[in-house]
Structures are given as C-alpha cells and as structure tokens.
Prior knowledge:
Elements: H1 7-16, H2 27-31, E1 37-43, H3 57-65, E2 68-74, H4 77-86, E3 93-94, H5 98-106, E4 110-111, E5 141-153, E6 177-179, H6 182-192, H7 202-215, E7 221-223, H8 226-232, E8 238-242, H9 243-252, E9 256-259, E10 265-275, H10 281-291, H11 294-304, H12 311-314, E11 336-337, H13 344-359, H14 369-372, E12 380-381, E13 387-388, H15 390-422
Parallel strand pairs: 1-2, 1-3, 6-7, 10-11
Antiparallel strand pairs: 3-10, 4-10, 5-8, 5-9, 5-10, 12-13
Helix pairs in contact: 1-3, 6-7, 7-13, 8-9
Amino acid sequence: MKKRIASVLLALMFAILPLTVAFAAEQSEIEALRGTKLYVYNWGEYISDGADDTVDVNQAFEEKYGIDVVYDTYDNNEVMYSKLKSGGVSYDIVIPSDYMIQRMIAEDMLDKIDFSNIPNYKYIPEKYKNLAHDPGNEYSVPYTVGMVGLIYNTDMYDGVPDSWTALWDDNYSNSILMINNPRDAFAIAQSVLGMDFNNESEAAWRVAAELLKEQKSVSPAYVNDEIFLKMEAGEAALAPYYAGDFLTMQENNPALDFVYPKEGVNFFVDGACILKGAQNKLAAELYINFLLDPDIALANAEYICYASPHTEVYSNPEYSFYQNEILYPADGQFKTQLFLNLKPEILALMSSLWDDVKNHVPANGTSNRAFFFGGESSQTVTDDGEVMTPEARKYALYIGIFAFICLAYIVFRYIRKKYREKA
Length: 423
C-alpha cells in the first residue's frame, strides 16, 4: 500500500516558499518569531516525522518560519490531562480528543484561537464544525477523525463477527484483546446494552460494569499499543481498536480484517488547541495553519492512516485511502456517538468501576451472560419511536427492579413512621 510521500522535495518546497498566505498578523510580527520556540504536545506516532522517506512536518515548519519546535508525546488523553494539571510542564499546543477538549474548555485550560491567523481553516467542511465539544468553533481545529471498530484474524475467527458480543464469546477464550481505556471499554458495553455513551445515570454505568465483569470469564488481555504486536503476530483472534490503526496492522498481517459492529461505535474528533497562557500564541496559530496546508495535511493523513477532516485530502484521487470504505464509510451506515465530557461524579464513578472490572475474578462455572445476551425475540418500540434491542430491554428491566426496590423502601419508611406516630 502506498503510504509515503517524497519528503525531501516537499520539505525543500516549504523551506523556500515565501510567506504569501494572508494572515491577520503583520509580516513583521511573523518574522519576529524567528529563533523562538514552540512547545507542542501530541499523541505518539501522530505526525509525519521523516521516517521511511516521509515528510518531516516539524522540520518543514522550522525551515519555513525559523521557529524551533519542541515536541513531546503522550499515550492517552488522561495522561496528557494529568501532566498538564500537575503544573510541571508548559506547552503552547496540545491535540486532545473531543470529550477532553470539552473538559479543558470547562476548566479554562484552553485559549480561544484567532482564526484570522488560520486561513487554511477554509478546508474544514461544515460537518466537522459546531460539534458538541466545541459548539462555537472557538477553541479547536479538527486534526483527525475516526471510529473504533472490531479487528479480527480471519485465520483464527470462524466467520465474520457483526456484533460487539463477539468479545464475550467462550470459543475465543484467551484469544481476545480488550482496549485498556475505561471510556472506550465502557462504550463497547454501553453499545451492547443500547445505552448512550454520555449517560449520567449511575445505575446505568453500574450495569455496564457488570457486563464488562462478565467478559473476564473469557480472560481478555487489556492492551493499548501492545495490540499492534499481538494482532500482527497472530496472537489474538479479536480486538477492538481504531480503524486507522487497523490499516497499519493489516500491512504487516494480511489475515486481519475489520468490521463496524451493528450496535454502533464511537466516532471521535481530535483537535489542535492552544493552551491557556501559551508563551508563543502567534507561532501556535501559524503551526495549526501549517498543519492545514493541503500538502502537509496529506502527508500526515498518509503517515497516520487515520481519516482526515480536510477536504483537499479526502477528495484527492492521489490519496492512498481515497474513498476507503473503512476510513470513510457512507453516512448513516451504522450508529455513531461522540464522547462528551462527563460530570465529575460520573467520571469518578467510571474510574472506580473500571478498577472493579480490572480486579474482578470470575467464579468458576458461573455466568450472568444469559441476562445480557438472552435468546432473540421481537424488537420493542418505545413511545418516541426508538427501537429497543433485547439487550436494552434487559437493561430497562434491571433498572426497573432497582427503582421498585427503592420505592418499596420509601413506602416501608413511611408506614413505619405512621405506625410510630399512632403508638
């Protein structure tokens, strides 16, 4: 698969190009940035870095503007957030996911972007603007987009899985990988149960945790980046992960294939943001605009293998993943949900429940999976027209029983109070 662009010529082109793009900032202001430093904090392996004859994006930026890029990486949103909150580091740019962007906005950790210095923002289509995590398009610029799906090894899995419930299949015990991230793991269970990923009901999160505990009976291995080696080496039959990363794995193991489960998936948008108190804000805006240059955006899309929100990338017939059905499936093909920032008490509950899931040891010979994955029956339609899956009906029953117990307790307390008053 063609995944690379001739980096030397492209880097030279950016080094010698005059600064002709129409910025609101004066040319003298831009020139004054030469010799300064720009501190960037991004996911690992999330920018074309010059390896294997790819474009070195940071080097090209440095050569064009004379600004030194100091570049650090993180493994996940939570690690990034914790490091920034600790106060021991100072960056200008960070590239979080949607729900984390929303959280950082709420906590006043991000600065508003001056979009007059981002003329290349014109390449971002309307469908990636005004999203729930940044409804006013003030704090972030989409960098990549994508979805989580199910990777399976065709040499090890019998047939084609179409449901997340494959991750609970006893036939593949000790051959299932599970994403080691509470938000993504809970989203899989919530999909099976027909729940909203951003549910604020504590009882609903507890039900999802019970389903994740049920998965422990098939001995899943919890992994993040280790998934690459394990799936490429044929050590597991099933694993949930990001569509773009699947394409990278498939290059090294053609037996791997990918599906979007019928219950629905998480759709995400990672965006470039400027941190509150950034020491080099104008340079940060130049950098974000540089990332949106059509050639640079194409180089990054080829290298990262994630879907691009850039019109000049995904509409380019020369793009290796042009009209790729995995990265760019047809709209409405399956249900998608964005993660949003959760209330602090729900975040704390999720963290606690995740610890419970990870530490859970299933009892031999016992399983409640029939409660969640019972026999097929006709679908139920609610008053508002929503279809309830069998799993969703079981979840509703579970909540109903819980509510009944609470009501019975209240009635009991009331009767006992009246009895004491008469006595």
